[in-house]
Specification:
It contains 1 helix and 7 strands. By secondary structure, it is mainly beta. It has a domain of 90 residues: Immunoglobulin-like. A hairpin with a 2-residue loop joins strand 3 and strand 4. The longest helix has 11 residues.
């Protein structure tokens, strides 16, 4: 018996990159920092909330690269002259990636109380019915 890969199923024409996309998404979730929520706010909109306590607006960058939403955080280490008796809050950088489906756009971002909110919206495709002419040979 031959096992078909997900992207090579005969009914999924044009989805050859789907398996690679799923693998890339699974790899990007490694580490688990920062924690995040994803909620559906309406039939066509979503909100991603990342817990970025200690990061200022200037320390965060949000980009969309090749259907990937990439959130990066870069913090600088505190001054060298500080003496920590206990250091439980690390000043570390992160990169969190989310793969966006076709038609999903980032509508805005807001930072409040240590939470970064990213609002996304999925445009509904227009229903187009086209008749294909059959040529005679």
């Amino acid at each position: 018996m031959t096992k078909l890969a997900l992207g090579s199923h005969p009914f999924l024409l044009g989805f050859e990159n789907l398996e690679r996309l799923v693998e890339r998404t699974a790899k990007s979730d490694a580490g688990g920092y920062p924690p995040y929520n994803i909620e559906q706010t309406s039939d066509t909109s979503y909100r991603i909330t990342l817990a970025v306590a200690g990061f200022s607006q200037d320390a965060l960058t949000i980009t969309v690269e090749d259907r990937q939403l990439v959130v990066r955080g870069r913090q600088t280490d505190p001054e060298e002259d500080r003496l920590f008796l206990h250091r439980g809050i690390a000043a570390r950088q992160f990169q969190r990636t989310f793969v966006l489906a076709d038609g999903v756009e980032v509508r805005g971002a807001a930072l409040e109380h240590g939470l970064l909110h990213l609002d996304l919206e999925r445009a509904l495709p227009e229903r187009v019915v086209r008749t294909i002419e059959i040529n005679q040979s």
